[in-house]
Amino acid sequence: MAKVTNSLNKDFFREVEVSLTSGPVVRSSNFHPIEPVLACGFSEEIVLLKGSSHSTPISTWKIERRLPCESSVLSLKWNANGTKLAAGSLDGTAVIWNYPTGEKRLLVQIDDRSNHPVVVWNPLNCNVFASFYESADSKRVLICDASDDSCYSYDFKSNQNVSCVEWISRNQLICGYVKGTAEIHEIELSKKSTSKLIKKLVVSARVSHSSDPYSLSEGGMGYKVSNIVWNEELKLLATSSEDSWIKVCPKI
């Protein structure tokens, strides 16, 4: 049997304390995909830390900018090229900031509830994102184009509560649901935005042996879809559900 050992030097990871504020603790954080920048979310602001290079110790990074917020920032997500930062807040809003200018580009709210939204950027279309309430009984997914010269959006409504979302192309995304199924939708963002159902999938193994598993799942027979991941290079879709199963399949 192969033996696995920890080959990392004991000093490879070092605890570093960086004092940013005397107020509440950091509620969220996310590294920039390209630049040596770390976004940190607090109760009423976002602090951007920046280093002179990626090899610079983070203890020497300086505050580049402070972005004021109306509520506690519970999630932070950069888009693929690092030109925009999305902040999901406790008051139910998602704010999109331009980087490095710090300009507030867009503020969206799916509905009137106090629950922070999850933002999922499209890696193949850097200005487009999907937003939904992961920890609430919500059947809505808001798709937006945050381009500087555009503000198109589409309010997608499902028959089931949404548990996760993943982009699989420039204009297609897959929504996972709490009852064990998933759907691939094609979204067209324009002045008259539309969506088209491409495919229905069964993720939960509990319903996979039924002659009509999708209808059974809609009746409450499936387990929640907990995660969906798309690999663009291999063109493979991986899904997991709360029945402890993982399924891998090619895009359909």
TrEMBL record:
Query: What are the recorded GO MF terms, alphabetically?
Result: transcription corepressor activity
| BP terms from Gene Ontology | regulation of transcription by RNA polymerase II
> Where does the protein end up?
Nucleus
Q: Name where the WD repeats lie.
A: 70-107
InterPro entries attached to this UniProt entry: Ebi-like, WD40/YVTN_repeat-like_dom_sf, WD40_repeat_dom_sf, WD40_rpt
Q: Which Gene3D superfamilies match?
A: YVTN repeat-like/Quinoprotein amine dehydrogenase (2.130.10.10)
Q: Which domain of life is it from?
A: Eukaryota
Q: Which UniProt keywords apply?
A: Nucleus, Repeat, WD repeat
Q: Name one GO cellular component term.
A: histone deacetylase complex
Alphabetized SMART domains for the sequence = WD40
Kindly give the PANTHER family that the UniProt entry links to this protein: F-BOX-LIKE_WD REPEAT-CONTAINING PROTEIN EBI, WD40 REPEAT PROTEIN
Q: Provide the family line.
A: Belongs to the WD repeat EBI family.
Name of this chain's protein: Uncharacterized protein
